[in-house]
Amino acid sequence: MLIERRKPLPAKVGIVSVGHHVYWDQFDGLRDEMLRKSAVLAGKVAGNGVEVVDFGLVDEAQGAYAALPRIRAADLDLLMVDMVTYATSSTFGALIRSLDVPVVMVALQPRSALDYANATTWMQLANDDFCSVPEFAAVAVRMGRPVPEVILGTLEGDAAADAEIAEWCRIAKVYHSLRTARIGLMGHVLEAMLDMHTDPTALTAAFGSHVVLCEPEDIMRHWADPDPAAVAAKEQQILEFFDTPAPVSDPITMKLTQADLNTAARAAVALDGFIAEKNLDGLAYYYEGLPGSETRTVMTNLTVGNSLLQAAGFPMCGEFDIKTCVAMMVMDRLDIGGSFAEFHPIDFDRDAVLVGHDGPHHINIAEGRPAIRSLKKYHGKPGAGASVEFNIKEGPITMLGNTLTADGRFKFVIAEGESLHLPVPPTGNTNTLGRFEPDVRTFLKRWVREAPTHHYALGIGHHAATISKVADVLGIESVVVPTH
Questions:
Q1: Positive or negative torsion for Cα 336, 337, 342, 344
Q2: What is the pTM of this model?
Q3: Organism's domain of life (predicted)?
């Protein structure tokens, strides 16, 4: 079973084709061939679930300046410059100088090679997609911009090029989500966790997300008078989705009690109402409440509801860690998960380390059916109640830490490893044994050397290269921890 995403993942990708106006009178039909090529690219891009805005063929400086206001007004998440043939960089300079949007050059020629024995100038020009790429790259630098990425290949039957187009469409979805997100921030830092402090204004400056400052009472209003039918339906959903195993070795665990199930379901319903009321796309929070208060009961029993929301596309991050909430959103929008995680004990016998946390988690990336246990106490925090437990899917995994440097800038720390299909402690917490190259000791030392915060987002698959491109698009420093 999977939790369905509640909101679509939108993105708007513009395509502007470039050519050289002198060619059209010289070679009959060449301009029509350029338009055909651009239409093929537009179809490929649209097939990745994004909105395509086609700005047509620009073949001289005047056309570039005329297109610029339309491109700006389109509010794009990505602009693809389709290098359909050679074009002078006057068609590009005005755009790259003035646009504040990620740009990718696409050079997909119709032929895998020219028919040399029968080649014509017309044939060469129809396949001259790469010719202007170096010129455009040089002009980008002279305009004070980074060199755009390049998708290079053939127009048809090129799986590698198609995969790059799909990757950039996913990156566009991440970019759109971050720059339009409303991320709630509630409560305070868990006392003494100095690496958790984040300036909301700095976060908006770096990612575009608006930070919505929330109060625990915003959830308590929805807890106070719940719809009994909604709570019963949520209980049923929880029982259908989660296993409820008997305790094994940990004396603070119990089989899920009816009281804990009801509290978790009622808190989940309150969370749903709160998210809808505030129109949030995610939440970072920590709040204890007074001993014995309803506020403490609710604020310490959000893990199950958080995990359901996380799987539905709303990153929900504990311990007030809004930086990691952003990292979780990046992974979720790439459709690779994004569980809240940290390092737990090292397994020197298996050359691995436990990675996980006590919640919340992206339950769509669980290996098998996730479980819920009742806990008599939450270690290190007040409260008791239902807690989520599962292994991450066996196979490749990626970690994304979002940290702050001494000068207050964000930095992505990225690593790839493998999730092992081995038992983890039955403690009501999510864990998986992660193996990292070249060995666990060396890897952990290298990870620490990059000064990450102690939390990170955990996803499935190897996606360090894609996440590095997300960082480049955002203008954020990133490092991939080496594996050799």
A1: negative
A2: 0.96
A3: Bacteria
